[in-house]
Amino acid sequence: MTKNRDYKKLRKVWYGMRARCNNPNAVNFSFYGGRGIKVCVSWVIFDTFYEWAIDAGFNDSLQLDRIDNEKGYSPDNCRWSTAKENANNRSNNIFIKAWNERKTISEWADDPRCVVSDAVLRLRLRRNWPLKEAMKTPVKTKASAPVLVTLFNETKTLAAWARDVRCKVTYKTLHKRIRILGWLPERAILK
Prior knowledge:
Elements (H helix, E strand, L loop, with lengths): L2 H20 L23 H10 L7 E4 L11 E4 L1 H5 L7 E4 L2 E4 H6 L7 H9 L4 H6 L11 E4 L2 E4 H6 L7 H10 L4 H6 L1
Helix pairs in contact: 1-2
């Protein structure tokens, strides 16, 4: 990237940082300036910010990230991070503890002990699955054998139950409830 493009990109980052902290009309002001986050005196001058940014390893794929979200923008509290690293450092993240480790849901989904995606893990936790079980229980795929469900002394496939007049939900919902969320058949079909 040329110096001119770096300059333009960093100018935009600098303006955004200052707006979040100083302009009550900025979209995210309440999360920054509205809660006392400030820009250090030395970064009021763009050239000082620019020099720090280049020295700190700026490149176009990275984002400005505050190390401690309770402190303001300054050379000792900022770094360049990937979008994922930055997202894992947000002040509104929910941290969960397992195996004596504290991580965000996204970080747990990246952990090798987790066998499901971030989306599945979030869904299971919203459904009050225990964390370790939510992470270690593989999602059953369509390629596996059809699920047979017995209810009212009748055994049928999920598709057959979805067509039954007693079933109150669509096949897709029934499949999700039984195969992914692990609901009992009576609850899954009749609720």
